[in-house]
């Protein structure tokens, strides 16, 4: 092993021994028939190759009455996207497509179903102002939370 490689190995070893929290690359939420997510804040890392989204609809109402999904966008875009979702309509899953402001969106599901999706962590900036919300008509006022992004 060359001296250079040796010192690299040592520094990696040192980094591994310091306080280190594994980056969170999974967002798990539940939604209910009361138009609520179970969490108001979720933390993920921009270093995740892929961030997985999972929303379990634990209610009983059908998707047409109480559909839920998870959409991620910059906080400043939430109101505009909620309006665009109305225009996309039920046929479009209440998600405007294609729209670069939608960083990620899972399919709309009804009670008893689980909705999954994912996106690359690099589409987020550490320290940025992001929100996760449900784009079903009228839901984003209650069904939203802060997506905290770490490095
Ligand atoms: Zn909803």
Brief summary:
The protein has helices at residues 3-17, 63-66, 78-88, and strands at 26-31, 41-45, 51-57, 71-74, 104-105, 114-119, 130-133, 144-150. It is an alpha/beta fold and 151 residues long.
Strand order of the largest sheet: 2-8-7-4-5
Rounded radius of gyration (Å): 19 Å
Given the C-alpha coordinates, what overall shape results?
globular
Give the CA-CA distance, first to last residue: 32 Å
Attached small molecules? zinc ion
Write down how many β-strands occur, each being a DSSP E stretch of 2 or more residues. 8
Question: How much helical structure, as a percent, in the residues?
Answer: 10-25%
Number of helices: 3
Uncertain parts: none
Secondary structure class reads: alpha/beta
**How many strands, which pairing sense, and closed or not: the largest β-sheet?**
5 strands, mixed
Chain-averaged pLDDT: 91
Beta-strand residue percentage: 25-35%
SSE order = HEEEHEHEEEE
Keywords:
151 residues, alpha/beta, five-stranded mixed β-sheet, 8 strands, 20% helix, 27% strand, binds zinc ion
Can you characterise this structure?
- This protein has 3 helices and 8 strands; from the N terminus they run αβββαβαββββ.
- 20% of the residues lie in helices and 27% in strands.
- The chain is α/β, with parallel strands linked by helices and 151 residues long.
- The two termini are 32 Å apart.
- The longest helix has 15 residues, at 3-17.
- It has helices at 3-17, 63-66, 78-88, and strands spanning 26-31, 41-45, 51-57, 71-74, 104-105, 114-119, 130-133, 144-150.
- The strands form 2 sheets. It has a 5-stranded mixed sheet, with no helix packed on it. The protein has a 3-stranded mixed sheet with strand order 1-3-6, with no helix packed on it.
